[in-house]
Structures are given as structure tokens and as C-alpha cells.
Amino acid sequence: MAPGTTAADRRAARRPLSRDVRLFWWASASDALGTQASGVVLPLLLLGLGHSAATVGLVAGVSTAAGLLLAPLAAVPADRGARKPVMFWSAMVSALAMAGVTAAVATGEPPLALVLGAVLVERFSTAVYEAAAAGTVALIAPPADCPRVVAGLSAGDQGALILGPALGGALYQVTRALPFLADAVSYAVAAGCVRALSSDLRPERRPDAGSVAGGPAEAVEATADAAAAAPAISPAPRPGPLRRMRDELGAGLALVRTSPFLRLVLTWTATVNGVIVALYYGAVFTLQKGGHGGAPMGLVLALSGAAGLIGSLAAPRVVGRIGAARLLVTVSWLLVPLAAGLATADGPWTYGALFGVFCLLMPLVAVVLQSRALRETPPSLQARTGAVLASAVGGSAALAPVLAGVFVTRVGTAAPALVCAGLLTALAWRTTVVRSRLTEATA
Description:
Blueprint: H1 7-14, H2 19-39, H3 42-48, H4 53-106, H5 112-133, H6 136-140, H7 146-174, H8 178-196, H9 216-233, H10 241-258, H11 260-289, H12 294-322, H13 324-341, H14 348-376, H15 382-410, H16 415-433, H17 435-442
Helix pairs in contact: 2-7, 2-8, 4-5, 4-8, 4-15, 7-12, 7-14, 9-10, 10-11, 10-15, 11-14, 11-15, 11-16, 12-14, 13-14, 13-16, 13-17
């Protein structure tokens, strides 16, 4: 075992997970499966109804932007004790929205406004659910179980990435409404699982929250609590609602800014996720230019999803054998030649193999970073901190296709992979430089 592995960690790896953890896993896996099933056919539906590719792209862009804006807003009530109601009702609203899409599509030729309205409501509610769900693992599992739980959630997402598109495509062939009905059912299952949780998902206040000696997390939490209590003990004017909202929303960002480890989590995840999206679109453009159809990209996605599933399941064991800090540095450097290799790839099998290795390695580090981030964040800041990290990842993922298209158009099809290799080199160098601090933080 790695030097940082304790007897408690080894016992945690053998004991069964709690009922709440299993329910939360089923909620996450069901949600992801339904989303993948309907998401893959939504562009086909809109195109089949006679709408342009620009309209389809606009829907995707507005949905992404809405998620980035709503997540921080939903994180505040979640951290203040309303996490479970927010998760339940947002899942129910998503279920009703997709049931509306199902009914509209089943009637024949639904108006664009009706379909888009229901889809946007579903995406808004999903953003709220994901923001509230951030930090749930820390409330239903002891710290020693967090790596296993995070790995299981990641495996569920990867499994949905493999099965969801195939399920959605098969249902769409039967009738256009079925994938959206499956998504509605998946949201209802998620809501039921959340409702069945025995925990109320309310963070417990740390008795020493008023002390800032424990580090950045405690300092930010204490500052937020002091700001909230100040009007009651001081004659100073009560801050206005906009000021209070700004302070609430900024608490997660302040914690990330003051925590070296959380800054690394943000930098690593945002960079790597943006890189893989840019590499994917670079592969799409290259294969299309080479005369390949949609089937090769399906092959690339299938191989990537299968590799990601294997990596997620193997992550806790690999981390235990190699050690978190060493694994993080090693994987960071291994991603560089994989990105560079995609600059010379010219066929779907080559792309599939390189993407597969890339997606095999990514979850190994993601589990390390997410598990430790849960420990670094106070319970009352979990959702807001998670929203900051998710916004950074979502922003890089939204920007990556645009930049990939610009580089392919102006420079050539190999340009996205070469630029990504350069970014990964800089990331690996930074990770290596701070390795001493990582070893202490992740031991």
C-alpha cells in the first residue's frame, strides 16, 4: 500500500456502503442515463422538425450558459440547509418538463416554442439539482469512504455515457417520444431516491467555526458567519439584499482563492476537461474532412466511455498502491504525449485508442482531486464551492469547441492537438513544482 494509506482506509475499502450512499448513486446514475438517452436524439428531433443547425446550436449554448448562471444561485439555499428539498423539487420539475416534451412530440408536429421552453426548463432544473447535489457525498459518507463513493459516481456517469446514446437511439427508432419519456422516468426515479434518503442533508455547524486558526476553509466560513451575525450585535446599518447576496455567492469563490489545493483542483479539472472537449471536436473536424461519417465518432465515444468506466472503477485501488501525489504528477505528464499523438492521427481506430487511454487516466486523478476537495471544504460551503469548480469546468468546455474550430479553420486540423499538448505540458510542470505541498495535502 502507499505510504499515506492508513488502517482505517483499508477497513473502509472492505466495508459495505450505507443505504444513503446507494440511493444517491442510483439517483445520479438514473439521472445521467436519462439525460444521455434524450440528449443524443434532441438534435435529431429538432432537425427532423425542419429547424436549422444554427437553432440546434443556439439551444445548446443557451442551456450551457443558463447552467453556469443558475448553479451559484442554487448553491446558497443548499448550503443553508435546503439541499434535500432543492434536489427533490428540481428533479420533479425536470421530470414534468420532459413529460411535457414527450406529450408534445407524441401529438405529431409540436411548435418549436413549446419544445424549446420545456427543454430549457429541464436544463435550468438540472443545473439547480447538480449545484445542490455538490457536497452531498461529504454529508452521507465518512471521509474514509469518499474515494470509493466518488469513484462509484464517476463510474455511473461513464456507464451512462456508454449505454445512454445507444438506448436513446434505439427508443427513437421505435417512436420519437420514447427517449424523452425515458428521461422523465429517470428524473422521477432520482427524485424518489432523494426523498428516500434518511439524512436531511443539512450541514452541521462546526463548533470552532469562529476560529480562523484552522486554515483558509475555517477562515472563510468564520468570515461569512460573522458577516451574517454582525447586524444583530452591532449598530452598523444592515447591508442591503444585493450586498448580502453578493457575500453569500462569493463565499465559495473566496474559499477557492485562499486554498492552494482547491486552486489546483480548479486549474487541473478546468484545463483537462477543456482540452478533451477541444480534442474531441478536433477529431470530429479531422474525420469529417477525411470523409468519415457519424459511425466512427460513435466508435470513438464508445471506446472512450468504456475506458473511463474502467478507470473510475480502478481509481481507489490504483491510488492506494501508487499514492495520490505521485499519481497526479505521473498522469499529468502522461497526458502530454497522448494529446500530441492526436495531431498525427488519421483514422477512427487511432483516435479511439488515444482517446481511450486519455479517458482511462483522467478518472484516476479526478477521484483523488474530488475526494480531497470534499475534505478541504466545510459542510456549509460545499455547494457554493462545487458551483465555482463546476462553472470553471463548464466555461472551459463551452469555450473549447469555439477555439478548436478557429484553429482548424485558420491553421489546420493538427493545430488543436498541438495547442492542447502545450497546455498540458504547462499544467504538468505546475503540478510537478507543487508536488511537495500535494504530498502533505493528500497523504
